[in-house]
């Protein structure tokens, strides 16, 4: 179910139906880039958090965003998910404005742990089902008005499949307050999978995660990538980034370096991006 | 038997009010069938027309406030609810002067006050809590001054503290209407409100209009506060918009169940409070809120997330270790 992306997706995604275990057919025309940011600036009213930010990323890669705290990584995610608007420049996702992509559930966002109120009275199942809300709303009146427990079984199947992909089906009825760190991450990853988004934004998906969960999460990543999804993760874990990412983007208010891991992750580049400050541990050359 | 006979209020005319009165008649007749199942000691006061109207008002207000209180508690809007409830007073007074419906005036002054709070917060170094304190006490004071010019102090007392025993049919009809609008909006936009309260970033990423949800929720709060004016009054309505939700928060672990429990707590405290206040001849608004507070106290001590359960868990953990 997951691999069948939503029917409202248009021409450029139609070849994506042949996903999972099937070779992609030869591309007749070039795919639009997953992300095209041109001369992007953004601020929260003060000095710009992002300044003259230019970045073009192809579709279907696992990209790691690396940079010091306050470098604008989370801000970049906010621009991509439409929570925030740029003060200058433009940003497009799969060749369309972010505003248009929002209503199509194109972009899924996996938040950092501290952005969520874990005391909220909600079960694992209901969190994952919330990933379907965009799809339910696309069904139009009157079905979009039905509460989630009355929505069509298609949505419940998608939530079911997403939960089994992260091996959380057994804990589906558990309140989120009763989860461990790794389980929390997996639940929100399942929400993004249930959304059947073409782009996944993952903010620190590995922070506070035990080894088993980390392995499982990377398996989910590589499966999603094989299905042609674009994954962008913010991480401080340079070792994993180097091992798993197709591409690394070093940012500090603007793009400092971008390309294949071995080219980007040089001490020189890192020192420049981290301004001689603290370079994340675990990276030993 | 005479209880079913309605005492029609002198004011109110036009087709809407006639419809409303008919609806109120039907609901009260149905309610009385239930009430008459109780022993006479309990059902006796409800033979009076004013007690029947008070009962129906209490049930509606208790249920609607209960449902909304879940959002207030989860969104941490307790202070905002307090601010809005105070800020509607000048609106009510001015609407009364201009002959407009209370709701319009209340909503305009509530909205202006919240805009004012935002303006102070954004443009000065004064923080949100102080900005709220300034704006809502200012608006409230303005309301008190206007009302003291145009009405008696008893009237002011009724607006401030409610007088559910004096509810007339047209007001009851408006309360019903406000309640129906609020409950159906929450039902139809449950997904949007849930996600907006739980994870606004995801709500926005899915293309929901979070500004609309924010102001929509505030609109529903204002509507409910105005509808509750006669029952518990401006000062105590905020208790009904916090306590039932907080009680349910201690007892259950899903939002739909939390809304049901909160509505039940709201209805129970409103009805029991109404009965006690009639029986003992004490202020109705205060009694209703005290019953709700007592239920919260029980949940605090004995609930699943309460003190006792916490102590037991602690002891069990200590034994295991």
Mind explaining what this structure looks like?
The complex is a heterodimer of chains A (285) and B (321). Chain A has helices at 73-81, 98-102, 124-130, 133-138, 153-165, 181-194, 211-226, 238-244, 261-264, 267-273, and strands at residues 35-42, 50-57, 62-66, 88-93, 96-97, 107-110, 199-203, 230-234, 247-251, 255-259. With 285 residues, chain A is of the alpha/beta class. In chain A, the strands form 2 sheets. A 6-stranded mixed beta sheet of chain A has the order 6-7-8-3-9-10, sandwiched between helices. A 4-stranded antiparallel beta sheet of chain A has the order 2-1-4-5. The N and C termini of chain A lie far apart (43 Å). Chain B is mainly alpha-helical and 321 residues long. Chain B has a domain at 2-36 and 49-236: ABC transporter involved in vitamin B12 uptake, BtuC (Orthogonal Bundle), CATH 1.10.3470. In chain B, 81% of the residues lie in helices and 0% in strands. Chain B contains 15 helices and no strands. Chain B is globular and about 65 Å long. The termini of chain B are far apart. The chains are: A alpha/beta (285), B mainly alpha (321). At the A-B interface, strand 6, helix 3 and helix 4 of A face helix 9, helix 10 and helix 13 of B.
Write the layout of secondary structure elements.
The complex is a heterodimer of chains A (285) and B (321).
Chain A: E1 35-42, E2 50-57, E3 62-66, H1 73-81, E4 88-93, E5 96-97, H2 98-102, E6 107-110, H3 124-130, H4 133-138, H5 153-165, H6 181-194, E7 199-203, H7 211-226, E8 230-234, H8 238-244, E9 247-251, E10 255-259, H9 261-264, H10 267-273
Parallel strand pairs in A: 3-8, 3-9, 6-7, 7-8
Antiparallel strand pairs in A: 1-2, 1-4, 4-5, 9-10
Helix pairs in contact in A: 3-6, 5-6, 6-7
Chain B: H1 14-35, H2 40-43, H3 49-74, H4 78-98, H5 102-123, H6 128-150, H7 153-161, H8 169-188, H9 190-198, H10 200-205, H11 210-240, H12 243-249, H13 255-280, H14 284-302, H15 307-320
